[in-house]
Amino acid sequence: MAASQAIAEFIKALGKEKVLTDREDLLCYSYDATPDVPGALPEAVVMPENTAEVAQVIKIAGRYRVPVYPRGAGTNLSGGTVPVRGGIVLSLLKMNKILEIDADNLIAVVQPGVVNQALNDALAPYGVFYPPDPGSAATATMGGNVAECSGGLRGLKYGVTKDYVQGLEVVLADGTVVRLGGKTVKNVAGYDLVKLFVGSEGTLGIITEITVRLLPVPESRCSMLAVFADLEAAGNAVSDIIRHKVIPATLEILDKVTIRTVEDYLHIGLPVEAEAILLVETDGIKEVVEKEKEVLRRVLEKHGALVRIAAGEQERDQLWAGRRAALPALARVKPTTVLEDATVPRSQVTRMLAAIREIGQKYNVLIGNFGHAGDGNLHPTILTDARNEEEMERVHRAVEEIFKKALELGGTLSGEHGIGLAKKRFLPWQVGPEGLALMKKIKRALDPLNILNPGKFVDSADLDENGEKREGEGETGR
User: Fold this and answer.
1) Which of 183, 241, 242 is nearest to 210 (CA)?
2) What share of the chain is helix, strand, coil (3-state, %, to 5)?
3) Domain coordinates of the chain in residue numbers?
4) Does residue 398 contact residue 382 with C-beta atoms inside 8 Å?
5) How many CB atoms lie within 10 A of CB 12?
6) Angle, vertex CA 116, rays to CA 419 and CA 98, nearest 5
7) Rounded CA separation 257/366 (Å)
8) Is the pLDDT higher at 463 or at 34?
9) Is 2-91's fold the same as 98-216's?
10) Could you tell me the sign of the dihedral formed by the alpha carbons of 423, 428, 430, 435, in that order?
11) Which CATH number fits domain 220-328: 3.30.830.10, 3.30.70.3450, 1.10.10.10, 3.30.420.250?
12) Which residues pair with 73 in a beta bridge?
């Protein structure tokens, strides 16, 4: 009853065209890009066009205690936008304007529905760019990037989303609109509330405006392909490159399974007999790029690699198209693609690569491995079929062991995908009961009714008033 009353008020406040209730429409918002997590049908999809409408929606939802699940393009890989407790999906795709490009201050201001690549396309004439570069940049939205703290191919040299967000406009759980941060490079006025909301996965507030830092486009760049006959040698080369004081713009790895799958998909001439390849790019001032190119070549060859320098932009683009095609290519092999992003310190990349291979053999599951080797962020991708219950049980055990190994090596459950629903039950392994309790306290302070993305990694309903875990709560996930 409460939900139907709330929906009637949403229609009255925003107009019927901005509130979807037909079952076919709702089905499209019952899942995201994450495999192997339970889907759920929302009771409505609400599509505001500005901050004032978002605030109206949140106030109405709070009045009726209706859960609100904020959503961009739905490309996230943690189950972060799945409406697990009914309620409404709050789609921010209509808020897709680039509000300002201030090249003098190296700043852009955007709404959350702006697509990552669309922003960089708009910045190109100004000779500046927005460095965070998730694999889904062509479809993922800036709001989703911020909510998940997306990483990407350029993370090694340039950092991730949190390193570029300078200001936010956020609608809080009671409908209050707050502005945090701004255009200034330095800003230490109180708590760093901008960083609190970056990576909060929609659990603390609705991001309605984003101010990001930009950088000048590098004047020169060089891409190379390094082919290895040994997987461990590729991992060792990654650490050795950093040891030689070279920080490439990108340093990516593809294992044998991924190489063969991408080549079968794109036919771009990848070396299908290789055990691994590294794709490396250095950028900056021309003289620096030339010097780094020779250092990189020398280090890679020392570890047994055959090195090929991209002859021009066409070959360079072809190499990186191959890397970006890793996930869609692997997804063609079997009906279900379980993609993880366990991350370890760079010095542990070789051990993690070997461990993932051994785990795949132990549980007899097919794993394609690729990722951002330069910052230790690997993407073991298990190719399976969710209809095969016995195999999925092995998959789940393999995933658990991958996470345990990453943590054992000083790593993390997630380098860029977030926790969401998919990894919720593993979070205590990393942060412990004290860390989890602190997160719950922040959640309860900002969202006392627990209406913002409930059921995900931080959910105040999982704790009683004394901060103790309630019986049977908090185990949602695979």
Assistant:
1) 183
2) 40, 20, 40
3) 2-91, 98-216, 220-328, 332-408, 431-478
4) yes
5) 12
6) 125
7) 9
8) 34
9) no
10) positive
11) 3.30.70.3450
12) none
User: How far is Cα 279 from Cα 224, in angstroms, rounded to an integer?
Assistant: 6
Q: How far apart are CA 136 and CA 113, in angstroms?
A: 14
* Biggest CA pair distance of the chain: 69
CA 320 to chain CA centroid, Å, is 19
Distance CA 191, CA 193 (A): 6
Q: For 421-438, what is each residue's pLDDT tens digit?
A: 999 999 999 999 999 999
Q: What is the DSSP string of 379-396?
A: EEEEEE-TT-HHHHHHHH
Give CA–CA dist 463/233, Å, rounded. 47
Q: Residue 468: is its pLDDT beyond 50?
A: no
Average pLDDT (362-385) is 96
Contact 338, 395 (CB under 8 A): yes
Alpha-carbon span 368 to 327, nearest angstrom: 9
Q: How far apart are CA 195 and CA 198, in angstroms?
A: 5
Q: What are the residues whose beta carbons fall under 8 Å from the beta carbon of 319, sequence distance 6 or more?
A: 223, 225, 268, 279, 310
Q: Kindly report the CATH number that applies to the domain delimited by 332-408.
A: 3.30.70.2740
Q: Which tens digits make up the pLDDT trace of 130-152? A: 999 998 999 999 999 999 999 99
Q: Which ranges constitute the DSSP H helices of 113-268? A: 116-123, 142-148, 155-158, 193-197, 231-243, 256-266
Helix (H, G, I), strand (E, B) or coil at 470: coil
Strand order through the sheet with 220-228: 306-309, 220-228, 276-284, 250-255, 366-372, 377-384, 336-339
> Please, what CATH class does the domain formed by 98-216 belong to?
alpha beta
Record the tokens describing residue 103, joined without a space: 């090249």
| 380 Cβ contact list (under 8 Å, min separation 6) | 339, 340, 342, 356, 360, 367, 368, 369, 402
Residue 462: what are its φ and ψ, rounded to 5°?
A: -75, -10
Query: What pLDDT does 1 receive?
Result: 62
Q: Specify the fold of 2-91.
A: 3.30.43
What's the DSSP call for residue 115?
Answer: B
